[in-house]
Write a structure and sequence with these properties.
Elements: H1 5-15, E1 22-30, E2 36-41, E3 46-50, H2 57-66, E4 68-69, H3 79-82, E5 94-102, E6 105-113, E7 125-126, E8 129-132, E9 156-161, H4 164-174, E10 180-186, E11 189-199, E12 202-205, H5 211-220, E13 229-232, H6 241-258, E14 261-266, H7 269-274, E15 280-285, E16 291-295, H8 299-306, E17 314-318, H9 321-335, H10 337-341, E18 342-346, H11 350-361, E19 369-373, E20 383-385, H12 392-402, H13 406-412, H14 416-427, H15 435-440, H16 447-461, H17 465-479
Parallel strand pairs: 3-14, 3-15, 4-7, 8-13, 13-14, 17-18, 17-19, 19-20
Antiparallel strand pairs: 1-2, 1-5, 5-6, 9-10, 10-11, 11-12, 15-16
C-alpha cells in the first residue's frame, strides 16, 4: 500500500535532518516483566509496536515515560509509578537504559533498582512526555465519580470549546461533520470533564456517545508541547478501520508540525499499513519466554504472529505476496500435500528475513518455521533461497518469455497475442514488482489471477526438478522436527521442459550443470 501524503511529508522532513532536537533513540530493558536486556529502537517520528498481549508493549511505553523528568512544574512520572512493589512481586535487579539525543549530542541515562530503592531519577533529562494509557477507552458512565454527573439537575459551569481547526480534525478522523465539540464541566464536579458533541443539530455528551467518538475527542483535546514524546497505548481502540487510518495520518501531520516523537502500541494491520516499514517494531515471545525484537515486519507477518485461524503445522516466511505464490507453486509441483500443512507468510524486507533466519537457527519459534529469501539475495544464516537467482517476477516472466507465453494463454483463457503483448509491455517497465499488475490490467485480470497461473506454468514447465525437491526437503525437514543443521544438501536433477507450441524453442532457464542458490540452503 502506498504511503499517505501525510506520512510522505513527515518522512521528507525527517530525512532532511532538520528538526526534532529531542529524540529518544532507544531503550534497553532489564529485569522488568521478563525483559532481559533487549533493545528497542525508535527510528522514525512515529513508531508502532505490535505483538501479542503480554509480550511487553505497554512496558516499553512505561519505560519511555519514566526515563525523562518533567520540565518546570509539570507533574513528574517515575519508574516506581509504573512498576511498584506489591504483595505479589518485589522488583530488584532492574535497569532501564535510554539512549537520548539533544541536537547533535547523544547521551545515555540509566534508571535502576538494584535493591530496595530506585536510583538515577535526579540525573534524567527534561522533556515533556504525554502518556495516553488505556483509561481513555473506559466508557464515561463507568469512570470513577462520573455517574453522579448524570443528573439533569446539574448545570454546565464551564467548557473548553474546540476551535475550528481542531473540530475539523475530529470530523476528518471520524468521517462525520460535527458542528461543535467541547469538554464541559458541571457544578457537581469542577474537575471531571465530559466530552459534548453536536451533530445534525443534536447535542449529546459522553454518556450517550459512541466509544470511538469519546476516545478521539479526548485525545484531540490534549495540546502536545513542541518536541514532546507522545506515548499512546492501543491507539486503534474503539475505532473502525477508516478512522484508524485517519487518526495515524492526523498524528503524522501534528508530529511534522510540532516535531513530536510518537510511540504507539497496536494490534491493528490498518495502523501498521499506514506507517513505513522502518517504523514497525514487532515483539515476539519465544517458547522459553525470551523476547525477540524484529523491525520492518509486514502487516501480514505481524497478524500471523497474533492469530491462529489457520491451523497449519509449519510457518514458511517469504519476502512478499509474489514470493508466497511462487513458493506455493513450487511445493505443489514437488509435493502438493505440503501446501495443506503449511501457511506461507510475507514478512517484508529481506533484512527482516535475515533476522527471522537467526531465530530459526536458534530454534526460537514456537513451532516449525523456515525462512525463504528471494533468489537475488545472498545466502544468510537460517534462510533458504528461492530458485532462479533473481527476484520472483524476473525469474517467472523471463522463463515464460523464453517459452513464448503459449501455456500462460491457455491457463488464463485469454487470446495468445494479447497475453504476449501485455506481458512483454509490462517487462519494459523498470519496477519488476509492478510487472504482474501492469500485465493483468489489459487482460481484465486481477494481479493474483495472472500471477498464480504464471507461477504454476513456470513451476510445471521451467522449474528444475532438483530445485523443487530441495525446497520441498527444507519444508519436510521442518515438519519432521529436524534441526536446521540436519538439512542435507540436495543435488540438482536436470529437467528439460517439454517442447512448447510457441514459436520460441523451449529451454531450461538455468543450466543443469550450474549449482543454483536454491541448493545453498543454509
Amino acid at each position: 500500500m502506498a504511503a499517505s501524503n501525510e506520512i510522505r511529508r513527515l518522512d521528507t522532513k525527517w530525512k532532511s535532518g532538520t528538526g526534532w532536537p529531542l529524540r529518544l533513540d532507544a531503550i534497553e530493558i532489564q529485569g522488568v516483566r521478563g525483559w532481559t536486556g533487549q533493545r528497542i529502537a525508535f527510528p522514525f517520528p512515529i513508531t508502532a509496536i505490535v505483538g501479542e498481549n503480554g509480550v511487553g508493549k505497554s512496558t516499553v511505553l512505561q519505560c519511555a515515560a519514566a526515563v525523562y523528568r518533567a520540565p518546570g512544574s509539570a507533574k513528574d512520572r517515575f519508574a516506581s509509578d509504573f512498576f511498584p512493589d506489591t504483595a505479589w512481586e518485589k522488583l530488584t535487579g532492574v535497569e532501564l537504559r535510554a539512549t537520548l539525543r539533544e541536537g547533535q549530542a547523544q547521551s545515555t541515562t540509566t534508571i535502576r533498582k538494584p535493591g530496595e530503592r530506585w536510583r538515577g531519577n535526579p540525573k534524567r533529562r527534561a522533556r515533556a512526555v504525554e502518556y495516553v494509557d488505556l483509561s481513555r477507552v473506559q466508557p464515561v458512565p463507568a469512570r470513577v465519580g462520573y455517574q453522579r454527573l448524570a443528573n439533569p439537575g446539574h448545570t454546565e459551569v464551564g467548557a473548553s470549546a474546540f476551535a475550528a481547526e481542531r473540530l475539523s480534525r475530529l470530523s476528518a478522523i471520524l468521517g462525520r461533520t460535527y458542528e461543535r465539540a467541547k469538554m464541559a464541566l458541571t457544578d457537581a464536579d469542577k474537575k471531571r470533564e465530559v466530552p459534548v458533541l453536536a451533530y445534525h443539530g443534536d447535542s449529546y455528551s459522553g454518556f450517550h456517545q459512541g466509544a470511538g467518538e469519546t476516545t478521539v475527542t479526548e485525545l484531540l483535546q490534549t495540546d502536545f508541547p513542541k518536541h514532546s514524546l507522545v506515548l499512546i497505548d492501543e491507539v486503534e481502540s474503539s475505532l473502525h478501520p477508516r478512522a484508524q487510518r485517519r487518526l495515524i495520518r492526523d498524528l503524522a501531520t501534528v508530529a511534522r508540525q510540532l516535531e513530536l516523537q510518537v510511540v504507539l502500541t497496536t494490534h491493528s494491520p490498518y495502523v501498521l499499513e499506514e506507517v513505513p516499514p522502518e517504523a514497525r517494531v514487532c515483539i515476539i515471545q519465544t517458547p522459553t519466554g525470551d523476547r525477540e525484537v524484529v523491525y520492518g515486519v509486514s502487516p501480514e507477518f505481524a497478524m500471523t504472529k497474533m492469530d491462529e485461524v489457520q491451523h497449519s503445522e509449519c510457518d514458511l516466511y517469504v519476502e512478499d505476496p509474489a514470493a508466497r505464490t511462487m513458493l506455493s507453486e513450487i511445493l505443489i509441483e514437488a509435493n502438493a500435500d505440503l501446501v495443506q500443512r503449511c501457511q506461507i507468510v510475507p514478512f517484508g524486507a529481506a533484512s527482516v528475513g535475515r533476522s527471522l533466519g537467526e531465530m530459526v537457527k536458534g530454534d526460537r519459534f514456537p513451532r516449525p518455521s523456515r525462512v525463504f529469501l528471494d533468489g537475488d539475495q545472498a545466502p544468510a544464516t537460517g534462510c533458504a533461497i528461492l530458485p532462479g537467482e533473481d527476484a520472483p517476477e524476473r525469474v517467472v516472466f523471463g522463463a515464460l518469455k523464453e517459452l513464448g507465453w503459449q501455456g500462460l494463454a491457455q491457463r488464463t483463457g485469454r487470446d495468445y497475442a494479447r497475453v504476449a503483448d501485455a506481458c512483454e509491455r509490462a517487462m519494459s517497465t523498470p519496477d519488476h514488482h509492478e510487472w504482474a499488475t501492469q500485465a493483468a490490467s489489459p487482460l481484465f485480470l486481477t494481479t493474483e489471477n495472472l500471477w498464480q497461473p504464471m507461477c504454476a506454468e513456470w513451476a510445471s514447465q521451467c522449474l528444475d526438478k532438483g530445485d523443487a525437491e530441495s525446497v520441498a526437503q527444507v519444508v519436510e525437514d521442518a515438519l519432521a522436527g529436524l534441526s536446521l543443521q540436519a538439512t542435507p544438501p540436495t543435488q540438482p536433477t536436470p529437467r528439460v521442459p517439454p517442447t512448447s507450441p510457441s514459436p520460441t524453442p523451449a529451454s531450461s532457464s538455468l543450466p543443469a550443470s550450474t549449482p543454483t542458490k536454491s541448493q545453498q540452503l543454509f
